[in-house]
Amino acid sequence: MKINKNFDNLVPNYLFAEVAKRTSDFIEKNPDKKVIKLGIGDVTLPLVPVVVEAMKQGADELGKKETFKGYPDYEGYEFARQAIADYYKSYGVTVGVDEILINDGAKSDSGNIGDIFSDDNIVLVTDPVYPVYVDSNIMAGRKIVYANSNEQNGFAAMPDENVKADIIYLCSPNNPTGSAYTYDELRAWVDYANKNDAIIIYDAAYEAFITEDNCPRSIFAIDGARTCAIELCSLSKTAGFTGTRCGYTVIPKELERDGHNIYKLWYRREATKFNGVSWPVQRGAAAVFSDEGQRQIKENIAYYQENARIISSAMDELGIYYTGGKNSPYIWLKCPNGMGSWEFFDFLLEKANVVGTPGEGFGANGAGYFRLTSFGDRESTIEAVERIKEVLADM
Ligand code: PLP
After folding, report:
1. Which residue among 124, 274, 313, 314 is buried most deeply as judged by most CB within 10 Å?
2. Nearest-atom index, ligand 1, CA of 235
C-alpha cells in the first residue's frame, strides 16, 4: 500500500493558524485591548430575506409527498441554471443554460477540475495566489510555473510569450491582491491561451464587486474565450453563501482539447464523484438572481464596498501604495517603512490592535505586502482605520 507521495511536496500553510495564534496570544496578554480583525475572508452580513424565504419554501416542499425531491440533476436544476444564464445576459454576456453546472462552491471546482487533465500538463498561476490552485496541482504532481504580479503590473500578472503553460488559473478580481483585469489585459491572456492550446480556469468569485466599466465581470465578455476558458463563480461573497454553499461553473460546449469535449469530460467526472446541490439551496440560489434578490444582495455588497472605500482612502491619506478596494473587497498594501509582512502584522497588532493578513502567505511576491478586508462591520472598520492612521502618522 502506498500513499500519494505528492502530498509530501505540499508546503505546510501556517498562514491562518499563525495569524490566529499570534492574535490569541496577544489577547490573552492584553485582555483590556479591543482587537479588530480586518484579516477575515469570510462575510459577516446574513443571507438576504428573499433567499431565506425561498430556502424555507424549499424545505417545506421537501416535507410534502407531492413536491418532495430526491437526488438532484448532477448539473443543477434547470430553473437555477436559467436564472444564472439570465444574470449573465443582464450584463451582456451570453452563456447557454446547458453550459452551466451548479456546485457546492468555487473551491471544490477549482480544486477538482484538474481531474480531467493529464498530470504532465504545466500549470501557470499568478503569484501571489489563492492557495487552492497551487496545492491541488501539487497533489496531482503537476509542474507549476509562476507569473509575477508586482507593483510594475499593478499586481495583475500578464502573459509572457516565452513561458509555456497548458492550464492557467486566473482570478479577477483577485484574491489576495484586489486587482481586476481590464478587457485589454484579459484579452491578452485569452489570445495567449488560444495560441498555446492552453485552458484558462477563470475564477470570478468576486465579480459582483466590480465597479469600473473597463473591467469585465466574465471572461466570456472577451472574444475568443469560448475556445479556451472555463469560468468558476460563487455565491459565497456575492450573496453571503459561505456557509450555505453554492457556486457554478460555465464550460462552453465548443471547448475541446486533445480530441475531447471538455464539458462532457467534466460532466462525466461530476456524475461519478458529485451528487449535486440540495433543493432548498438551489431554490435560495435562484432567488439571488430574481429582481428583488439582486436589489437585496446589492445593498450588502454596497456595505462592504463602502468599508473598502474607507480603508482605501486611509491608504491614500497615508500615501501608502495599494491595489484593490475599488473592484474588490480586498485592499493589498505595501508594508510601510520597508517592513516585512509579519513584522507589519506584529506592529499593527501591538500598536493598533488591528489584525490583517501577511502577504507572504500567498506566495513569494507577497513578501512585504499585507491584505486587509472589507468584510467587517462598519463601526469596527472605521475604528480600525483611525487607529492605523494614528500609529502610522507617528512613524
Ligand atoms: N475562489 C477564490 C478566489 C476565493 O477567494 C474563494 C474564497 O475565499 C473561493 C474561490 C471559494 O469560494 P467558495 O466559498 O464558493 O468555495
Report:
1. 124
2. 15
Same domain, 286 and 309: no
Kindly report the protein residue whose alpha carbon is nearest to atom 11 of ligand 1.
107
Residue type at 111 in one-letter notation: G
Q: What total of structural domains would you count in the chain?
A: 2
Residue 247: which CATH number?
A: 3.40.640.10
Instruction: Please name the amino acid found at residue 73.
Output: D
**Residue of 183, 190, 185, 188 whose CA lies nearest to 214:** 183
Residue 41 in contact with ligand 1 by CB distance below 6 A: yes
Question: Taking the complete model, does pTM exceed 0.85, yes or no?
Answer: yes
Atom of ligand 1 nearest to the CA of 234: 15
Give domain status of residue 64, yes or no.
no
- Residue pLDDT tens, the chain, 395 long: 999 999 999 988 778 889 999 999 999 999 999 999 999 789 999 999 999 999 999 999 999 999 999 999 999 999 999 999 999 999 999 999 999 999 999 999 999 999 999 999 999 999 999 999 999 999 999 999 999 999 999 999 999 999 999 999 999 999 999 999 999 999 999 999 999 999 999 999 999 999 999 999 999 999 999 999 999 999 999 999 999 999 999 999 999 999 999 999 999 999 999 999 999 999 999 999 999 999 999 999 999 999 999 999 999 999 999 999 999 999 999 999 999 999 999 999 999 999 999 999 999 999 999 999 999 999 999 999 999 999 998 77
The answer to the question of residue 180 being in a domain is yes
Please give the distance, rounded to the nearest whole angstrom, from the Cα atom of residue 373 to the centre of ligand 1. Answer: 14
Q: Which residue has the cell 447557454?
A: 96
333 in ligand 1 pocket by Cβ < 6 Å?
no
Asked if the structure places residue 59 within a domain, the reply is no
Phi-psi domain of 389 (left: phi exceeds 0; alpha: psi -120 through 50; beta: other): alpha
Q: Cα(199)–Cα(214) distance, rounded to whole angstroms?
A: 23
Q: What is the CATH number of the domain that holds 347?
A: 3.90.1150.10
Residue with cell 503537476: 142
Tell me the three cell numbers of residue 101. 453546472
C-alpha cell at 304: 462592504
288: which 3 cell numbers? 439571488
Domain that holds residue 276: 69-290
Is the CB–ligand 1 distance for residue 373 below 6 Å? no
